[in-house]
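ugh ok so i messed up the first submission bc i forgot one of the chains. this is the corrected input, ALL of the components this time, i swear. 693 residues overall. if the numbers dont match what u have on ur side tell me asap before i send this to the collaborators (the ones from the other lab, u know who)
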Amino acid sequence: MMGSGESRGGARPDFAVNLASRYARGTRWRTMFMLSTLLAIFFLCALIVTIVDDAFGYVVMVDEVDQDSLVMDGMRLETMEAPALRTVIAENLSPRRYRALEREKPFSERAQSDLHAVVLTEIVKPQVVATYTLFESLFDRNRIIQENLEANPDGTIIFRSWVTMHFLTDSLTAIPLSTGVMTAIKGTLLTIMITVLFSFPTGIAAAIWLEEYATDNRLNRFIQVNIYNLAGVPSIIYGMLGLAIFVRGMEPITSGSAFGVTSAGEMANGRTVLSAGLTLAILILPVIIINAQEAIRAVPGSLRQSSLAVGATKWQTIWHHVLPASSDRILTGAVLAISRAIGETAPLVVVGASTFLTQDPSSVFAKFTTLPIQIYQWTSRPQSEFRHIAAAAIVVLLALMLSLNAFAIITRNKLRKQKRFG
Amino acid sequence: MNILTRRAKVSSPLEVAVDSGESSYALEAKDLSVYYGDFEAVKKLSMGFERKKVTALIGPSGCGKSTALRAFNRMNELISGVKTSGEVLFHGVNIYDTDVDAVQVRRWIGMVFQKPNPFSKSIYENIAWGARINGYKGDFDELVENSLRQVALWDEVKDKLRESAYALSGGQQQRLCIARAVALKPEILLMDEPTSALDPISTAKIEDLLDDLKKRYTIVIVTHNMQQAGRVSDKTGFMLLGDLVEYADTKELFFNPRDERTENYISGRFG
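and heres the new structure output, hopefully the right one now
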């Protein structure tokens, strides 16, 4: 007798009771996904903490010439007027150095702040004898003071932010205390400008050709495969390519001598902003092409058909429908590529970034250095001050990158809105 | 005189003197075959479409009716690997002749697709754009109003012409697509299952439209729905596996089919 209660309550042998284990498996996976995300966030935080840790903190300064010995008429350096400062300079500077500075700009024409700076850098010459990280400064203050009372009785301990206004606006110098990164910022911006101007139009045009015009034959498939391969080629190899083609092969053009604009005395020999920008451009070209191709491929065929069905030509279809519909995706891909280019160091080293440059690049035919190059150089110096200015430069680089990305995202969102309301 | 070349100077094919030998059909396929690679999707199709009539093509999925329709304005060329042989005559010109320009063909032979696919532009621009790129010289406001009235959409959208076409319902979008096609003043409208993505009410509206539209245009409609073919068409062709099995007046075909396969299909025995 098969009661209905029995069939409902009894086990059904052909279906296992497994809902609990199915849920358990899902929970395990979910935990793993969450942990992966947390791990990524942890490393990101660690990165930021390390940089911030190095960018701020106590420094111990010792003046080569005691500032108290320069007191005149009871006035300290900070309160002195211009004439008094001129006297201090005249009395304490060697005649040769005095004449050299006078030639740069006569002392009689210099303002008080300028004169004060000259006194500090040329006469007082403050030296950093010890630096501390932010964490040490915050939590180990007493030890720092104790240590320096013994080791540097003349030293003053001050809390210093290595990212200062001067650091942002001044040109590079050899002295970590007074150096700025403007030379490198300008170098980076000029280089990236060249990269964008060259790689955007070329990359998008190539993507349009490959997606919309190229027939599916052996040659085009070969080209396509190789573009994918090129996207994976290590960047230093692009550096070699840039060295061979732009620096050596096209030297008259990249050095500017073909246009008669090389400044005498500062021969860059093709190791210019232009060469660097073009090298980075060919480095990210495959990535831009692939991204743009994917963006164009994502445009539904029905959109193309509807345009062609009203008697539009192929080009009208691409220009009026395909490109507007894919512009936001194209832009997203291109921005990611540009972000990569901004951070590239290796190819620029090969192309010949200047190791030490005190003059801001004045044109695309000038010698160059970029932020990553500068960071790389500073981190390889043994003195601890350089570690701190490297951290400060990293802060600047990250800020630059984030603001470029933000600009791109805003532009993309605008394009998206346009797309929706047409 | 060839009206479909790249340098054709006529603004309407009707300006061309109809020579004595021209057929009475608006469009005529002769031995038209379409291949996807080696597969022959349409086999030596020969049929004529009478002026200002609605002709329906019916048949089960994969019978080649949509492929045949796309061959009538060279839309198949957009799919790679498609080969076409035979002739499609429009005003005595084979649209597959080497000196015929596909863009010119599509300008005179309009098309409406299965899924509504308006441009991502305003309602106004959806209609004006096609006319503009084809060098329309008249008043655009008038053209837009006229076209929208022809598809009975004017009253519904006249206050929001500048809004995105995507804000319309599916049925309205499809009528907009028909308006977009008629704005070019084509001679022939090809419709590829225009109501299969729509609800019954929107479908009824479009079916009603066809009666008005056929006063001006020759219409070829592909449909899955036999009742629809029965309601809207003057002539019906039944296709099976790439062959045109039977082609006759719609009433004749539905009530008195000559071929056994047609009878089986319309009585619902397969399909």
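quick check: Residues 36 and 79 of chain B are 9 Å apart (CA to CA). that seems consistent at least. The two ends of chain B are 44 Å apart (CA to CA).
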